[in-house]
Specification:
- By secondary structure, the protein is an all-beta fold.
- The protein folds into five domains: about 100 residues, no CATH class; about 100 residues, Immunoglobulin-like; about 90 residues, Immunoglobulin-like (Sandwich); about 70 residues, no CATH class; about 80 residues, Sandwich (Immunoglobulin-like), CATH 2.60.40.
- It has two helices and 36 strands.
- Strands 4, 7, 9, 10, 13 and 14 form a six-stranded mixed β-sheet that branches. Strands 1, 2, 3 and 5 form a four-stranded antiparallel β-sheet that branches.
- Strand 21 and strand 22 form a beta hairpin.
- The longest helix has 8 residues.
- The chain is flat and about 100 Å long.
């Protein structure tokens, strides 16, 4: 049978081919730097059953028998056409005929010391496949090879959303290899329709490969019987509010929930609709405090009408705290300088756990205030009379999932090398940076700075340097956490 099949595969394109299913697989070599593209053909044949009926039967590999889609990544190189070559039955590759075998080029920029492996490893976090009751969620993942971009599709009976944009959210920079080796990514607002939904996540790589992960979800809104669960994280219970209005925030377990609050005091009444982030954090902004004691009703309602209610009592303080607007460029940094006013001025004040300097006129300044890495700048301000024992806070700089940890002062002492060198890839400085370079006699180079390891700004150019080079910068509050690198001039 194998010989007849091979002849059929090589006949003219104008002639009919026997019915078959072709399956393409990408098999990496043990070293990981090259990939073989193999295509197997599974051909139909006729059999006579016990009733004497002649039927057509096709032998398929086990993964295709139930027509379920594989969940593991597979590779699909862009722009490569398949060439049919003579093949033979190859038991090691499956119960089919090998019709194509092609070596794909090694990924660009690989070397024997740090060659990427193919296919890449792409663990994905999201709801387990199967029945879900939440119509919208995010899917996060990580690739052990640097990504170019990410897209995703959502396919169901009512519509097909294709080429939706995902985002590369973070990366790990390997200082020894001098390049990014791992990327995190996220697909936001993956929205399902009732019934079966197929989600395809496409990871595109600089060398032209695309890895696709398939997930299948069945949305059953009729199974939702429990109301949403939520709790308030700010304001702190029992802590008086030093303002005429407040922003209430908390966390809800379903991002499709509608959050509202009702404030009624005497002749005053208002309803406020909140915002719900993708993370589940919710905001109820500009909630008025009309009386000394204010009673607030918070309601969470899901997409099918189930609701939960919580009541909050807030007391308005006689003190007043005002936060001055923070420059937008600082809100994207790892820390910021925050200013404002407090009345009366005889108070100790903290911003995100950092104690501020309060002057006699009530103006205050808090330096190096840590900011959240979650995409929203939060400033929680607390104050108390200076005569009371100070509040103890556990303050620490957040470390990103790339292992990067900001520190106040960084001192680098090293020898000059004729290669581009990032001096503090894992320790961005937000207070002071000091550099001492040896073996720079006659060398020419540029000192550059960056806040994200991607966009670099020249600070100074040093031509025909002396035997050593020294640089110091102490006023870094206006810049945020910064990385520094040496760029040789050749």
């Amino acid at each position: 049978m194998a010989a007849d099949t091979n002849v059929a595969c090589q006949t003219s394109l104008d002639e009919d081919k026997p019915a078959c299913v072709e399956v393409t697989r990408y098999v990496p070599e043990p070293g990981g730097s090259n990939v073989f593209k193999t295509t197997l053909a599974f051909f139909s044949h006729t059999i006579t059953n016990s009733k004497g009926e002649v039927i057509t039967q096709m032998d398929l590999p086990p993964e295709l028998m139930d027509r379920s889609l594989p969940t593991n990544p597979f590779l699909a190189p862009v722009g490569i056409s398949m060439v049919l070559n003579p093949g033979t039955d190859t038991g090691a590759l499956g119960p089919g005929v090998l019709t194509s075998l092609q070596r794909l080029p090694a990924p660009a920029g690989t070397n024997s010391a740090g060659a990427p492996r193919w296919p890449p490893n792409i663990p994905v976090k999201g709801p387990p496949q199967g029945i879900v009751t939440q119509p919208q969620f995010d899917i996060m993942g990580m690739s052990d090879q640097p990504l170019h971009s990410v897209t995703f599709d959502v396919l169901n009976d009512s519509r097909a959303l294709t080429n939706q944009q995902g985002f590369v959210t973070d990366g790990f920079f390997d200082g020894q290899l001098g390049r990014y080796t791992t990327n995190s990514f996220e697909c936001f607002d993956v929205t399902l329709a009732p019934g079966t939904n197929l989600v395809l996540i496409h990871c595109h790589y600089p060398n032209g490969f695309t890895a696709t992960i398939r997930k299948s979800y069945t949305l059953r809104l009729d199974l939702r019987i429990d109301p949403p669960k939520f709790h308030v994280t700010w304001p702190v219970p029992g802590c008086p509010i030093a303002a005429d209005q407040v922003t209430i925030r908390g966390v809800v377990d379903d991002t499709s929930t509608k959050m509202t609050c009702e404030v009624a005091e005497g002749l005053h009444s208002t309803n406020i609709e909140g915002l719900v982030e993708r993370s589940g954090r919710f905001w109820l902004e500009h909630v008025p405090l009309w009386a000394k004691t204010n009673h607030i009703k918070i309601t969470a309602t899901d997409v099918v009408g189930n609701s939960a209610v919580s009541r909050l009592t807030l007391v308005k303080s006689d003190d007043r705290i005002v936060i001055s607007p923070v420059p937008p460029e600082q809100l994207w940094q790892m820390q910021a300088m925050v200013t404002g006013r407090i009345s009366p001025p005889d108070r100790n004040l903290w911003v995100n756990g950092v104690q501020a300097n309060v002057r006699t006129n009530g103006e205050w300044t808090a330096r190096s205030v840590p900011l959240s890495k979650e995409g929203v700048a939060l400033f929680d301000v607390m104050a108390q009379p200076a005569t009371e024992p100070p509040i103890t806070f556990k303050v620490q700089n957040e470390e990103t999932n790339s292992g990067i940890k900001p520190v106040e002062s960084v001192t680098i002492q090293t020898n000059y090398t004729p290669a581009e060198t990032i001096l503090n890839a894992s320790r961005p400085a937000y207070g002071a940076f000091n550099l001492h370079l040896e073996k720079t006699a006659g060398k020419s180079f540029v000192l550059q700075a960056s806040t994200n390891l991607v966009d670099w700004t020249p600070i100074l150019t040093n031509l025909n340097s002396a035997a050593t080079f020294d640089f110091s910068q102490t006023n870094m509050l206006l810049y945020g956490c910064r990385f520094f690198r040496i760029q040789p001039i050749r």
